[in-house]
Amino acid sequence: MINFEKIYGISFENLAKKINKQLERKYSEPITIDWEVFTKDCIDPQPDDWLVVYDKNNAGEVMTKKVGNIEFIIFSFIDVDVRNEIVEKTKDYIAQNLELINESELESSIQLILVQNREEVKKFTGNRLGGMAHFNSQEGIHSITSVFNDTVNVLKHELMHAVSVEKWGEYGSNLLWLTEGLAVFAAPDTEECTGYTLEERYAYLLQNNRLLDISELIAFPWTRTSYSQAGYIVKYLIERFGVEKLKLFWQSGMDNFEKVYGLKYEEMISEINSELNKKYSSPIGLEWKTFNKDCIENID
Q1: Which of 33, 85, 208, 215 has its CA 20 to 30 A from that of 50?
Q2: Of 287, 115, 151, 119, nearest in space to 208 by CA
């Protein structure tokens, strides 16, 4: 481009002006092209308005579609009917998550990337995770990347992160376990294929002395134990004390637990464990290694 004028004897800018003047003289009457029809029917037409894009992360050919405030980005080999089903599921998940925390309408935009496994998540985020949600509050955009396949569906879990941080703000100090627990409670079937409920998983950990102590849980080591434990604690807090107290606690921080709930965190854990020990007097037959292998490793 530096040598354009040297080769053609005219600058690129002047050439463009010359072309435009020639065409203005030649076509003095308006040209009647419906631009929307042209771009829809003539430029890479796709079923149901899905358009092909090539991702800058070298992840391969993906399709994109804008529905309301959500931009969907899904690999092109996923059948169009499945893509459209995902669109509807996403709407349902957002509505269900909002209802769960007594809120309405997600106003910010969402860029939603759905992939098949953790390696594909890494291509987009740099981290080999089941999913990731980030909120740019200044621009009002949620960026979500999530594994979504026939066995594993992390989407509702990640959408709860978007819903809760937009409606309740950033969570208070030492409450990473709370935001993850809320997402687990919203989608307890995420990465679960054994048929055990969230309560039964917690009870199994209790029976087998696998529960993390309070300091470990607050540090949140990103294990299946911490997710299951945090998820059930959030379930208990909501069902016993209500969503409004949970919102207040979310915005207050771990140091204000007793102020919000009227008892110490340790006392609440003791109550939970005592109730479940009575309810589940017989051993729960969950094989934790099998659970991790069959329900977690298949996310790869």
Answers
A1: 33
A2: 287
pTM confidence score: 0.81
Is residue 90 a contact partner of residue 159, using CB atoms and an 8 Å limit? yes
Question: How many other CB atoms sit within 10 Å of the CB of residue 262?
Answer: 11
Please count the other Cβ atoms lying within 10 Å of the Cβ belonging to residue 279.
10
Q: Given the structure tokens 């631009």, which residue do they identify? A: 35
Read off φ and ψ for residue 138, nearest 5 degrees: -65, -40
Q: Provide the CA 2 distance to its chain's centre, in angstroms.
A: 45
**What Cα–Cα distance (Å) separates residue 153 from each residue in 85, 101, 117, 218, 292?**
13, 21, 10, 26, 16
| Span 54-101, pLDDT tens digits | 665 666 788 899 999 999 999 888 888 989 999 999 999 999 999 999
Dihedral sign computed on CA atoms, order 10, 14, 16, 19: negative
CA distance 296 to 243: 29
Q: Which residues partner with 51 through β-bridges?
A: 64
Sheet holding 61-67, edge to edge: 51-54, 61-67, 70-75, 109-115, 141-147, 131-136
**Which structure tokens are listed for 105?**
């309408």
In this structure, which amino acid lies at residue 71?
E
- Which tokens is 153 given? 């569906």
- CATH number listed for the domain at residues 46-170: 3.40.30
Distances in whole angstroms, Cα of residue 191 to Cα of each of 147, 198, 202, 236 = 10, 12, 15, 21
* Token representation of residue 64: 């994109």
pLDDT in tens, 8-19: 888 888 888 888
